[in-house]
Request: fold
Amino acid sequence: MNTLFSPLKLGALTVPNRIFMAPLTRCRAGGEHLPNALMAQYYAQRASAGLIIAEATMAIEGNSAFWKEPGIHSEAQVTGWKLVTDAVHTAGGRIFLQLWHGGRACHPLLNHGAQPVAPSAIAIADEVRTPEGKKPYTVPRELRDDELPGIVESFKKAAQNASAAGFDGIEIHGANGYLLDEFLRDGSNKRTGVYGGSIANRARLTLEVLEAVSAVWGSERVGLRISPLSSYNSMIDSDPAGLSSWLAARLNDYRLAYLHVIRGDVYRQQSGDVLTPIRQHYNGILIGNMGYSAEEAERDIAAGKVDAVAFGVSFLANPDLPARIKTGAPLNEPNPATFYTFDAEGYTDYPTLNPAPEH
Reply:
């Protein structure tokens, strides 16, 4: 596992290993979407990751898709996140915040009755958890072109708030069927005009957001996450490899910290290899995600297929995942029943190696 434990220069940051923590929605924020001390404990427990990418966080008020997810649009939320970043840094870690707009995955019952917005008026064919139980997703309102600069500006403000909260950088969430991904893929974007049709037009909003947040952070502290094959949230694209190749090449115009790619589709509605064309066209740091074992991660990094791997569920259940990989210790089994509950059970109570190995 020598390659997994080698340092990596990640834009303006150098990280000590290539075992990253993927962003994981856990629904532990308090009222008004406030980060709290329980979240600080959770992230600090996982500070041995090369990089922690914190969970999807509302850049704009009134766009909740998970009921109890955190935000970064108020001063109180900035203060709450400062608890988290201080705890992670005290534990020796590094942490980026994932900035996010839920798009059509939001629901009126989570947002004081407000209709969700999207590139096109197409609903997700599924149900969402609300305070009143599971409900069907609603048909979103199609955004007007003249509303999009305000969304870009709100991402910029969220980036400023993330800086004030003490993060080491930010990741823009362009994956998993949320607003930016909805614009990127032609299954959800049926617009005409400058934000629809061609790949260049569909990517316009994502690139405008990247430019806006890079003006705050410098692009070398900004990452982007994409999921060209994922069918989660009723997503599909007619040419995921073409979209991936175009976007990878275009992103070379930015000196991003990294490009983070969910390589497949957990629902197996679409299949294919998007990492290879992305690697061929993208000159920067590439992070792979989804279904990696430590052994495959080591092989793929050593072979140059990716530069680091983001682990999700295994980090959820194993706060000390790097130590377990290094020593060959068994992994804790995750408890899916507590993934989206609201307390410490299944969140901060997974055991670590005892005694902890010396570093």
In short: The chain has one domain: 8-338. The domain at 8-338 is CATH 3.20.20.70 (TIM Barrel).
